[in-house]
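REQUEST FORM: STRUCTURE PREDICTION
Request ID: SP-0412
Submitted by: Lab K.M.
Chain count: 1
Length (residues): 262
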Amino acid sequence: MPSLKRFRILCLHGQGVNAAIFAAQTGAFRSLLPSWYEFVFIDGGSTCSPAPGVEDFYSGPYLCWYNTPTTAKVAEAHRRVSAVIEKDGPFDAVMGFSQGAAVAASMILHHQIEYPTESPLFRMAIFMGSPIPFSKDLGSGIDARTYFGLIATKPSRVGYPTKIPDYLITDAAYLKSDSHCSPYETYYQMFHPAVDNVRIQVPTAHIYGWNDPWYLHSKDLARLCSDDLKSVFEHDGGHEIPRSESEEICDVIETAIAMVGS
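STATUS: Completed
RESULT:
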């Protein structure tokens, strides 16, 4: 269990909200956690439409980390978060919801691939309602270009699959490409445990709902994490952070944090 000094957690919001909204969405369970946990909320860099139902309760701006997960745009999201880490870090942990969780997972996976002998990017991670992460380059993942309406004349990775498991095809908006992207220079590489050998090797807490469209995505993200270091809580809600389950959310987070070395 970490000592009672500050335990700093970088927080990445989902698509169509912002840092302040994410702070409000997580306020119920955070209020039950120890006071030495410091949550730092940051904004994504692109504007977008509000997430469903959000506009009725929260004002904008409504932000995202990318409007479509091309390798180039995922790399830009990584750079934005990395700049915050360099300026305001270090951070002990990262917490993300939805797209923010996918960005966090992608960054951790890439750090392990690129710097296998260095200390991890974060000491633990909290993933809530996460889609499967995408890669920032062509070295990992399933070539998913055709699912985003692009023509792939040859595979981005020779000998690797170009078919996404059918159960991961969810919201049509998720598979929307950017009309401003060149179809000949645009790539989508989806991390997947059936294709990629890398596994997140820090403690992880996974929170997701049975009725979430991203439920099976979240389960596959859990498969990209070390079996010995993950803690999972499945609730009966949808794509949300249920206030009624605050104690259970705290339990799964505390279980993961307890596995962090002091």
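NOTES: The radius of gyration is 17 Å.
Reviewed by: T.R.
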